[in-house]
Amino acid sequence: QSALTQPASVSGSPGQSITISCTGTSSDVGNYNLVSWYQQHPGKAPKLMICEDNKRPSGVSTRFSGSKSGNTASLTISGLQAEDEADYYCCSYAGSSTYVFGTGTKVTVL
Amino acid sequence: QVQLVESGGGVVQPGRSLRLSCAASGFVFTNYVMHWVRQAPGKGLEWLAVISYDGNNKYYADSLKGRFTISRDNSKNMFYLQMNSLGADDTAVYFCAKFSSSGYYFDYWGQGTLVTVSS
Prior knowledge:
Chain A has 110 residues and is mainly beta.
């Protein structure tokens, strides 16, 4: 159950698009279509942004999208806004009813 | 609306035990799988444990080495995390989280309760 690998930080200017990667293995990310993404503002609980690799829950902005290729999942934020500045975590089912989170990425809006 | 409220956190000495509780409301508790997740200060999220809707199946992160036990009381809409042999690296905010009925993801989270292990 090693943590999925994410870049420590990603930054972009307002209006730009950024992509956060989440790299796992063939035992987790690559084996199931069950990657979810969470946004966390300081001192707050995480909020679901993407589920099942690329599905956007009701109420989440269409600026957020998910994708996956092999053992790497990605979260793209389009039209970056100041309110998007937060920490982002991926999470994958890892088999045997266990789950693993990513190391987390701090998104900075320049 | 769905609410999850953790309690039971605080300062505990190394080697001691602590039980966290999570009170659930706003949904049919007996129908849902529930989880505990923690976050050490300044660190990332760590999945800890899951319990099935009826409490009969429980699974844990390998890192816990059998020290933690998850349980639930469906008659009270509560679930728990019993933590034993606590060490400094157990210092964290502990979140309870509800699993979606339709997939393998957390759709609601509590606000967390802080556990500090210190002498």
